[in-house]
Structures
1.
Amino acid sequence: MPKKVAFLDRDGVINVDIGYLHRVEDLAYLPNALAGAARLVDLGYALVVTTNQSGIGRGFYDAAAFETLMHRIGADFARNGAPLLAVYHCPHLPEAGCSCRKPSPGMLLQAAREQDIDLAASVMIGDKMSDLEAARAAGVGRGILIGSQGIEQLGSNETAVPDLVAAADWMEARDGHQIGAMDALKQLRD
């Protein structure tokens, strides 16, 4: 059965965006990141990280450094009740024209194929409009912007919130509303 997923951008959503983060000792989680991720899991969402990492393509760090950092993030998330289902990254430069770099939907579509994801039942949580543009192109049902960069471009199934706990609150309210509507429809039929 296809699963619903919370796609999480990394820098600016999970951790403080210091620019080309690649060393474990420089990792600093954003307030409420771990708690918010655990709440999303409690709501029935598997977690998939999808992140542009052009620092690899620029030669600032290598894939091994990225993997080491993501292993640490994965361990921290698991310890806090928010295991990561998978991590996808694009190592290419913006001008490479690849299909995986957000706002292209490649990473999300690859994840959907490999992880049996129901895109329409899933949500993308990012700090840039390119995250939500990738989600729209992939057919992801909802989008959440962390912060206010690009807020004027939000669509009807999208919102902006300050952090992952607020994102989980919004998803809980939306899911509760949908469940309530389905229950009401079922009662009308009976």
2.
Amino acid sequence: MLKLCLLSPATLEVMLNCYAVVPSCEEWMQSIPLEIHETHQGFFDSVRQMTSQPRSLQHLCRCALRRHLGKGIDAAISRLDIPSSLMEYLLLRNDGEIR
């Protein structure tokens, strides 16, 4: 599934941020077109670095909260009385790297 997102690093970032552990990437990283890899090298470096590494407690809490909120997550998060930066984090807004 992740291999299908290679042409869109932003989509791949959202997908990977849904995982509690970044899965092995060596097989599909070989398929990245050179131009895309060069343009988004920082992102792909962060993916390699996080492969099979434990995610931060902050990220694991985001995963748990998103799982708990279920299908109506966007509407549910929008109703929360929380800072906009936290709201964007919970909504998986892209920042160009995996942490």
3.
Amino acid sequence: MSVVHRRTVLKGAAAATGLSLLPATAGAASRVPVTTEERRVVIVGSGFGGGVSALRLAQAGVPVLVLERGIRWPSGPNAETFPHPTSPDKRIFWLGSEPNLFNLVSFPFPRYTGLLERVAGNGMDMMVAAGVGGGSLIYQGMTLQPARDVFNANLPEQLDYDRMDQVYYPRVAGMLQVETAPDELIDSPTYKASRVFARNTKQAGYPLQKIPMPIDWDYALRELKGEMKASYTNGDCSLGVNNGGKHSVDVTYLAAAEATGNCEIATLHNVTGVALAKDGRWRIEADRITTDGTVVEKKIFLANALVMGAGTAGTTRLLMRAAATGSIPDLPDGLGTNWGSNGDQIYTWTNFADDFGAPQGGPVVYGSLEWDDPERANTVIQASLPPLPDLHTTMLVGYGVSQGRGHFVYDAAKDDAVLHWSGNPDGPLASRIEQRVSDIGGAASVRLDTTTIAPSTWHPLGGASMDLVCDLEGRVQGHRGLYVLDGALMPGNTAACNPSMTIAAVAERALDDIVANDVGTVF
């Protein structure tokens, strides 16, 4: 049961900035209520790590509060919850964070608690999600388990690959109900691009496999039958799947957590700071906001345990700010280091001699996994374009074992920690992916590496890495009751795979240990 105390302050709080760790911007002075609540466990963020933490603690009888800055995005047949890439609107961007997409296209939309935030860095930007379900709302859905040798070469062997393989990866796959696309769908008219990718990959001598996805493909087959409007089968799924059938964290882990009666999700709660209270509990400060960012209440939560699940950008920056301001003393020196991009490379692939089709079914069907060498393991997949006129173009995406590392630096003037990434530290991996993309594309194709135009990653990892900042279960060294269980815990890459499955599996492993050893003693 929570204990609530209320007061008011005179505060200029017309709107939140949209950066999770920054205070509200100046505005017309108004009385904003201040509320203090006492909680047993607070989880910041509702993505894969936060979702796993919420469910497993709730199942153990521990009441948890999940703070999510964004909103819920319910989906179902013929819904219009998510925005469309071909007709963008305010729902795309988090509180006006990206009025100019990569400085190429201007979007003068009203401020809204939308899906996507671009967190600017020095040399590299991070694309991060907002909303109940976190990145699972907008990720393509590729659910890949690393190979043993690649896993052990890039993550601590003490995680025990045998147990991860036998227990935790299967547990995640079961929760997300992963399936590969059926041949009936792949053979349908709008999946030409997938078939061309498969043909060319085989002709180039590279391995090819279907990619496991957290999707009920019957939804796509029903679209083909005209039972609902197109969403999968026309590629209109890069900013969320309106028709449903995608097993994102909100409809799997979080729904199950709420069903226990022990999990409360507080939406539109933008966390602005974390601290160690004088009594040894964890203090979390959050703005309760409206969908245009107006702050309507300042909230303080005092918790016995704090789980950071706000993603690499959110978690690392909140902890860096706490370290720099002394709000949490003696945080490990490795905080803010060992950041990696997971080697993300995103290409457009154009070939006027080939027919990719328009529209193109999605989100992803096939991939090529070159994992035989743990030092240069990489993955290349084909992804659909949103519904556009026939441009003889589709998308190729590569990622892999990235060796380049960036770091965060606290900027007192901004009261924020900024990512620093210099040069081309992932050059060898990028060159290998470029070679493979070229081979698959063929001599007559034209490829554009969008990552070189606007350096960014959709898979930011690290900043509070295991072994450097946390133990393997996410316990922050020297700080009882403080946990990191999201992409910030990863060591800069996830062994040539999308991060989602490994983040969730590592969190599952961690929660088994935390429930067994910390519940009832630490909190």
4.
Amino acid sequence: MTRAILLPAAGASRRMRGRDKLLEQVDGVALLRRSALRAKATEAYVAVTLPIASPRRAVLDGLDLTLVEIDAAEGMAASLRAGAAWARDIGASALMVALPDMPDITTGDMSALWAAQAEQPDRPLRAATEDGQPGHPVILPQRVFPAIARLMGDAGARAILKDHPPRLH
């Protein structure tokens, strides 16, 4: 089973008042690089979507991953479409979407989700918070890739998760 992880990193960080949250340091490492390292440690293939000519590219130097430049003005859907197309092209059975601005998500968290996903590989799976609320990351099986290809705007995968309710883990 080929596993793929998408780190959608094309957002504008508008709430950061001019600073780029993905370049902020956490324990001496840029948040985007930290997230990429954790994703790579799961032994999955990893892709990062970036805005065209982004300075974020520099913090990913030396990492064995795929960089996909997108038009960030299209919203989150552009990242999801690019990620699903990449996952399809590498023959992935599922795509984990892991938001790179969540420093508390560990390699162990991602690995536990992959293990749980193997129990019902054709159904979406979503991490749950400690109090049972839907959270992140989300794993989308290959069968929903065509629906991802039709997404538009900045609503992310909400419509897909409504049509294909995920299990929580």
